[in-house]
Structures are given as structure tokens and as C-alpha cells.
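Journal club prep, notes for RB
We'll compare a predicted complex against what the paper describes. Inputs for the uracil case:
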Amino acid sequence: MSKELERLQKRIANSGYTSRRKAETLIVEGKVKVNGETVTELGTKVKPSDNVEVEGVKLEQEDKLYILFYKPAQVITSVSDDRGRTVVTDYFDDLETRIYPVGRLDYDTSGLLLLTNDGEFTNLMTHPRYKIKKKYVAKLKGYLMRDEVKALEKGIQLEDGKTHPAEVKIKNQNKEKNTTVVEITISEGRNRQVRRMFEHFGHEVSKLSRVELADFLTLKGLNAGEGRVLTPHEVKKLRNLAENG
Ligand code: URA
């Protein structure tokens, strides 16, 4: 599909009007007009210059926003929680636009998380085909052994498949406390992947933080719970890395 063309339901969702699913319902119900004509076909594509009206309201194209957030531990990577726990978007209540997390960090994991209102960018960053590097610092119970490091560097068999080669660097080992602090860089984003990679060798992860993304984004200058807007150059660099490796 040409980069210019976009599915109608996506355009409606991206405008912040409603979710994509709700947008589909509105289209089917005949509540959406494109350039003054009612459209009920879900596959319809629109150009940026097309005038879209939903339930009589003309859509404004939203500015794209990309945020680098330092997620604290004990915060949920979601836009809502049925148990009332703090979610990442609670930190951005004042924004006029709806933003969503790009990928996820576990409840107990802290660190670098992107949020955006740009769905296409989210797909680019999270699709397994595009390999964006993520660096974590993990505190482990037990002594990480040399052969375990070697195995992680080659790839290990987890229940959902073999992991891609990881970069592993031991930062600190404490004999008395029987702990290891290790830096690990992976380019996949499977559920609880880092924790499972160490648990594979019997090392429970007691602390985990994502400290770097794509080799150039860090948490520098931020405290937990703070965020900053990515520069257009940073966004471009991320897109390039995803598309060109
Ligand atoms: N790996 C994990 O185990 N947890 C995270 O939050 C991120 C990567």
C-alpha cells in the first residue's frame, strides 16, 4: 500500500476519535463520510487530504507524538487496569492526545519505554521482523557461570523456541550475597524473555531494568516516572534502524 494511503478505520482511530474496532462499527453503520459521501466499505483507503467526517464531526489530523518514558517498577504497561493499579498512561493524563505504550515491560521491570499515538510506528518497533536492540541490566540470584554466558550468547531453547544470540556482560558478582549483576542485549521481545532466559539456568531475576534501546536511546537525565519527547531526528533514526536493520 502506498505510504500516503491509509485504511479509513485506522485514520479514525489515529485521530484519537475512538478505537479502531469502534471505528469499524461506525463505518458499517453508515456514520462515516469521506469527502461528503457516506462510506460503509471497511477496506476503503483514504489519502491525507481526504476529508473524513464521523457522526457529523470533521476529523482533525493529530500531530504525532513520541515519548521516551522511564517506567518505574510496579506500574502496568497498559492504558487501563481493572484492578485500579497505576498504568503508564497515568503519567500523561494532561495530554490532549491518546498515547499507547510501544511494546511492554513487566509490572516489576523498570526502565525505558516508548509511548506514542502513531500506530504505524508502534508496528514498526514491535514487529518481530524488525530487530530493535534492547539492553537490560538484571540482578540475579546466584553466580552466572561462564558456560551459561556462552550459551546465552549462542541462543538457548525456551518453551517458545530458541532465542537469538544475546550480548552478555557481567558487571558485578558478589560471592557473599551470591548475586550477579549482568547487562544483556536482545533483539526480540517475547513475553518475560529476559527473566526466562536466566531462569533457564536456575537464576531468578530479582531486579530488571531496560536501560537502552536501539543502541542510542538511554534514560539519561530522567528519573523514574519522568519522560521526554523524542526529537524528530531520533524518531527517524528508529524508523531507519527498523526498516534497514
Ligand atoms: N524481559 C522480561 O523478562 N521482562 C521485561 O519486562 C522485559 C524483557
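Talking point for the session: Residues 105-106, 109, 192-195, 208 surround uracil (CB under 6 Å).
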